[in-house]
Amino acid sequence: MKHPILGAWVLEAWTISLGDKISYPFGEHPVGRILYTPDGQMSATIARADRPNLSHPVPARAPVEEKLAAFDSYFSYGGSFHIDGDDVVHRVELSLNPNFIGSDQRRRMAFDGNTLTLSADEDTSKGKKHHSIRWRRAES
């Protein structure tokens, strides 16, 4: 496969819009990487930049509240992917969130130079949420 999405990307921003309200699910300066390989594999990781360390070096021994905060401030999944027109479809095979496993995560792709924006809409009881995740191509 030869496609401009292939390679490593560094997270620049993740915003969620609902009407004229904008939120930042991992803060205004999140960190992350997304990787796409030529053989159709992908991996995505996103985290808050200001995550505190756990109070114990062995996570299983850290207080439940700290583990919950660590879970809520980190997101990761991986699996295979394919291109479908202007969309990339991630077939989730492993995930921090077990509910994602087995799902297809469809994202619209938009390229602008060394920037990739992946976006998706989500129907909620309050209206349609628009997710926009902007990545820049990783430098060697």
Name some characteristics of this structure:
single chain; 140 residues; mainly beta
Query: How many strands?
Result: 9
Strand order of the largest sheet: 1-3-4-5-6-7-8-9
Radius of gyration, Cα only, in angstroms?
Answer: 16 Å
Strand content: over 45%
Could you please describe the fold and organization of this structure?
The structure is a single chain. This protein has 140 residues and is mainly β. 6% of the residues lie in helices and 56% in strands. The chain is built from one helix and nine strands, in the order ββββαβββββ. The chain has one helix at residues 64-72, and strands at residues 7-18, 21-23, 31-36, 41-47, 74-84, 87-95, 104-112, 115-124, 127-137.
Summarize this, please?
The longest helix has 9 residues, at 64-72.
Outline the fold blueprint.
Layout: E1 7-18, E2 21-23, E3 31-36, E4 41-47, H1 64-72, E5 74-84, E6 87-95, E7 104-112, E8 115-124, E9 127-137
Antiparallel strand pairs: 1-2, 1-3, 1-9, 3-4, 4-5, 5-6, 6-7, 7-8, 8-9
